[in-house]
Write a structure and sequence with these properties.
With 428 residues, this protein is α/β, with parallel strands linked by helices. It folds into three domains: 128 residues, no CATH class; 65 residues, no CATH class; 186 residues, Rossmann fold. It has 13 helices and 13 strands. The protein has a six-stranded mixed sheet, with helices on both faces. Strand 7 and strand 8 form a beta hairpin. The protein is flat.
Amino acid sequence: MKYRYIKYTGDLIDGIDLEDLVSKLSDLLLSSGFSNPWGDPSMGSEDRTMQALHDAILEALFSGGVLSEEALQQLLGEPADGDQEAARQQLEDLVEQIIERMMDQGFVTEAPDLAEEREHRRGHGGGMGENAGQASFEVTDKALDFLGYRALRDLLGSMGRSTAGRHDTRHLSTGVETIAAPKPYEFGDTLNLDPSSTILNAVRRLRAEGKATTAAGTIDVDYPDLMVAQSEYQSSCATVIMLDCSHSMILYGEDRFTPAKRVALALAHMIRTQYPGDSLHAVLFHDSAEEVPLKQLGRVRVGPYYTNTREGLRLARRILERQKTDMRQIVMITDGKPSALTRPDGQIYKNAFGLDPYIVAETFAEVNACQKAGIMINTFMLARDHDLVAFVRRVAAICRGKAYFTTPYTLGQYVLMDYMDRKTKTIH
């Protein structure tokens, strides 16, 4: 029997770092409706179809550096060979394998075809013929958590930071790490005894009483003799991140909402892993405002058209007032001035032309309420509109917070630096 030996090159998919590929697909996986900016982005799903995923993977393979030059040469072959049909089929097979592996590893899952099910229940039988190209996918919690980790790693790396500590304060506590002179023990202190100071106090007390030791030759330590070591007092912080999801966040040729979501996911991952004593809540504000679970943050899309800043601040204040922590803050990310207000009867008053005196007055009243509750408001502006700048500067002056003029590309660095540094000066 004759054998033919050929060089083994392995499967192309084995040379693909799937996590790196998922990271490069983050704009698609965290999409916010930018693909249909003039329609109703909260109802659109054009960017969650299997075809959109297929096209994004192709783009990452050719332009994202996922495949090496050797792998691309092996995949496409020589143009002069003329067998381009086989090369295209091999490329399609590779994309299909990547999608299957992403599903197997739990990054995406196929969404149920609700339209087909509705047609079936109506008695029309359904069918895959017309809707096959419109099959969609859903992003899993694992993928969102992974994208939050990658965003945090990339943002901290761009700031030159590899690790982050906890929130230091000027106060002292009875922790484990000793950095100051010991102090007498008080009820409620951590019982981190300073042995030498405690024994010295006991000896001094026994000598004052006329006896150096007990009859058994031991030193009798009493409650007033106890001394505990002091360390830096590290406080906890409760944060509400307010995301403006009004329609302007995806208009004017720029997607501002997806970078904001990416920063929120990074902040959530950092707090969960590095600041376990802290808490984070997410509030979306548009025509009205609502709190969303952190695990759903990566799936939200831009909502109705106006900016109800007062309602967002009110909801954030109510959330923070329930938190029994030393530091409470609101991180507000917006690109527009207040243009809506919820009346006492529940109706929404809207005016998008300039700074409406009624809307502004009610919004500043809520800012004052936050200031009286000891809540700091730090605002990150994604636009330089004159009315927005004037409004945000007034907010910073009332609550002694900070105002950052930033862009979607530098937003994450500013937010994370502010959270870790805990500075108190106003930056304009």
